[in-house]
Design brief:
mainly beta, single chain, globular, 2 helices
């Protein structure tokens, strides 16, 4: 276990010093591991769940990230497919799938802080399936509900909602659609703290059908078989990318993305929508054209004159008053061939091919703060430039650390083992500071901020994976 303190100054201010306490666990070798999952904080412990190929194991750490014990976990089958994990204050759940006599089971095992299984439930059974279903899931904001669903078929979706507090499956349904093609129209599936399911579809998102362009929101309720459907017309534009969230405080659906009205080769602005999902209530749909200063700021940093089209909504931070902050990020991928026309075999059982490698670029972030009435409060660009190759971009992007008074966007300056970790500290009024958090030059860390977990109002844990070695890193703001 390594512990050190980092004192940093706000760039350009140089007045007030703040400190972070950084604790690093001992190194774990991942040579035989298939995957790992940072579950989070249970009681006073931190849990890391590992699939070691031949067995499943939990590593238990204390508050100072000292490894207390490693314990083997016996699941219902030796060849399980791990689906998700969810932590509660005193326990955590492991959800996994396995086959038995032609059926496919989704199982939920509840474990206490000492990683002993205290309950086991079957969430759903897929009967007489030849291939394992492609299972996806969504969690409620308060982490008491989790919903598993499939979207492999065009007109059929299977869903199962599990309530962690009650320890049972609330509903298990097969939903049929007549005029919907899920593979093409599906955009998002959300679950509220009350167990309501919201399926968001987008139809006619083409320039030739722009006058019929709509979002369809299908609402399913735990206590009723009948569903409600709301149509949100967006015929003014074609969307490039969208993301949605459910506001449990204000009981409304919130979403946003990038749009174009005329030139489909270039994004023209940001759209924001809000709907209470009540009969008779009007939706609020607002667009914000990119300002000229955004054009100048973004394009001066790149020869690509179409940077806005690469923007994606990464996070939606909801406000108590019904407003929201859309956090967008430029994401680009470029494929390249490892062998050009040589035709030599590359360990490919299917024959000869040219293996494709991928370069990943995660660059500037654009923030739009929107009031409850749909008006734009402020917007700004936060600069970063991350590049990596052939790693699925796991070390790129940022971690959103939430605090009642401010937001922190924490990220790697460069994708390497000798790197500076930086953050943007954003206030509610749009004021921000860029700070250095720590340097990994001598501690040889490579942090995966996409997999970080916030464990309190002042601290979070992030895994560091370098080659086949893993450390857990806790960052506390003092």
């Amino acid at each position: 276990m390594i512990k050190f303190w980092c004192f940093v100054f706000a760039l350009g201010l140089g007045v007030t010093a703040r400190a972070q306490k950084v604790t690093v666990s001992q190194e774990i070798t991942l040579r035989n591991d298939l995957s790992y999952d940072l579950v989070g904080k249970i009681d006073s412990h931190f849990i890391l769940f590992r699939d070691r190929g031949t067995k499943y194991e939990a590593s238990i750490y204390d508050q100072e990230l000292k490894l207390k014990t490693e314990k083997e976990i016996i699941l219902a089958d030796k060849t399980c497919q791990l689906l998700a994990s969810l932590a509660t204050p005193q326990s955590f759940f492991i959800f996994y799938g396995f086959r038995h006599r032609g059926d496919y089971y989704i199982q939920a095992d509840q474990l206490n802080g000492e990683c002993t299984i205290i309950s086991s439930d079957t969430v759903k059974i897929f009967e007489n399936v030849i291939l394992n279903p492609n299972i996806r899931f969504a969690r409620s904001e308060d982490r008491t509900k989790i919903i598993f669903f499939t979207d492999e078929k065009d007109h059929e979706m299977q869903v199962a909602l599990y309530d962690l507090t009650a320890g049972r499956t609330v509903y298990d349904r097969k939903i049929y659609f007549k005029e919907i093609f899920l593979k093409e129209d599906f955009r998002s599936l959300l679950v509220s703290n009350a167990g309501e399911m919201f399926l968001i579809l987008e139809k006619n998102n083409y320039r030739s059908r722009k006058e019929k362009h709509v979002f369809e929101v299908h609402c399913f309720y735990p206590t009723a078989e009948a569903a409600r459907m709301f149509v949100i017309p967006v015929f003014r534009f074609v969307s490039f990318h969208s993301k949605f969230a459910y506001d449990n405080v204000n009981k409304q659906l919130v979403g946003g993305g990038i749009y174009s009205q005329k030139n489909l080769n270039r994004a023209e602005g940001v759209y924001y929508l809000k709907h209470s999902l009540q009969i008779g209530e009007e939706e609020r749909l607002t667009t914000y054209a990119f300002e000229s200063r955004f054009d100048e700021e973004m394009t001066r940093r790149s020869r690509d004159k179409n940077e806005f089209s690469q923007l994606e909504v990464s996070e939606i931070a909801l406000r108590q008053d019904g407003g929201a902050l859309l956090i967008m990020e430029i994401k680009k991928e470029f494929e390249r061939r490892s062998v050009y026309g040589s035709g030599r075999p590359l360990n490919n059982p299917g024959g000869f091919r040219n293996y494709m490698l991928v370069d990943y670029y995660y660059e500037d972030m654009a923030l739009f703060s929107i009031n409850a009435d749909g008006s734009l409060m402020w917007s700004d660009i936060l600069h970063k430039k991350q590049y990596s190759h052939d790693d699925d971009g796991v070390f790129s992007s940022f971690f959103l650390f939430k605090n009642p008074s401010r937001l922190r966007l924490v990220y790697n300056d460069e994708i390497s083992s000798e790197n500076t970790v930086s953050e943007y500290v954003v206030q509610a009024d749009g004021q921000y500071q860029r700070k250095s958090v720590l340097s990994t030059e001598y501690v040889r860390l490579q942090l995966r901020f996409k997999d970080a977990v916030q464990v309190s109002h002042s601290s979070f844990i992030v895994p560091s994976q370098r080659s086949m070695r893993l450390n857990l890193v806790k960052i506390e703001y003092l």
